[in-house]
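Field guide to reading this record: the first block holds the primary sequence, the second block holds the structure written as discrete tokens, and the final block holds curator observations. Each block starts with its own label. This record concerns GNAT family N-acetyltransferase, catalogued under organism Deinococcus multiflagellatus.

BLOCK 1 — SEQUENCE
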Amino acid sequence: MTSTLPLPDLNAGAWPVSLFDPASATPEQKLAVGRLLADSFAYANPEDPPLIPEQEAVGLSHQLPTERKHHLVVWQGAQALAWGCLEYDTEQNTHMAHARLVVAPQARRQGLGRTLGGQLRDMAMQAGRTVLTFGTTSRVPAGEAFAQATGAQAALPMRQSRLPLSGLDRDLLARWQGRPEGDPYRLHLWTTVPDAYLDRAADMMMVMNTAPKGDLEQDDWRITPEMIRAWDAMIEEAGEVRTMMAIEDTRTGALDAYSEIFWTPERQGPVFQGATAVRPGARGQGLGKWVKAAMLEHILATVPGARWVQTNNAHENAAMLGINVTLGFTPWSTFTEWQLKLA
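BLOCK 2 — STRUCTURE
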């Protein structure tokens, strides 16, 4: 779904920019953007299994019913040289928008980033947003330099870490999964949250609002059962697998902790750690260590070809960083969420 947002003059700069609507674009056009995303990833991460252009193309149209996305592309014939996307929610954090920007490796340092970045900023202002966020990785140093040049603030620096599965301490995993006699907690394993737990899962996932936000001017997000089902559909369409482990307090029925991973069968090797959280009132009982250790053993037993797990942690999130360091996660790169105040 695309809203009728007034747009700036797309051809005011040196590079002609086109609006791009994945819903009406041809399969060839979507695949061209998918190739751009895959090529840019390969340039920054040459040692990793490559992204699959067809899957990247599918993901271009993914959004929740309350979200709006606006895509811009710079074309050279049938090839996409640069792509930008502005996304925001119509019901939550209505002061914010998030931007993504990718330029083909062979087309960098020619002003495409400045052109698209300026237009994404203008579109955010026309949508009534006062804060624009975007992310950069140290794998692409030019992105960090670009962010600094815009005057943006490094609002949430994060450490990207990797854990080689070949070196896991299996004794440690066993110790962390040991529970006392009469323990009231029960561990669940789901690829799709059962209907009977859907409301409780939505409530549990909002525990991530307690994670460090750094200097981001972001309000708490509200998670609904409908959002979870929408994510389920998008994950399946993209060819991904998501596994969630949740810990239930059998005395109350509440879900007090969870962890989730994502992986793609066609890209054997990496597994991506999503959220891990423990409800504040249930902390100090080893639930975070339990769910992390159980998930790692699950990966070893069920994910074909898995070689490492990658995760992001805010530098100020000492508790989760401590767990990950003890497990053997080591620094791999940095990821920074930037915040730009809009006039």
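BLOCK 3 — OBSERVATIONS
The mean pLDDT is 94.
The radius of gyration is 21 Å.
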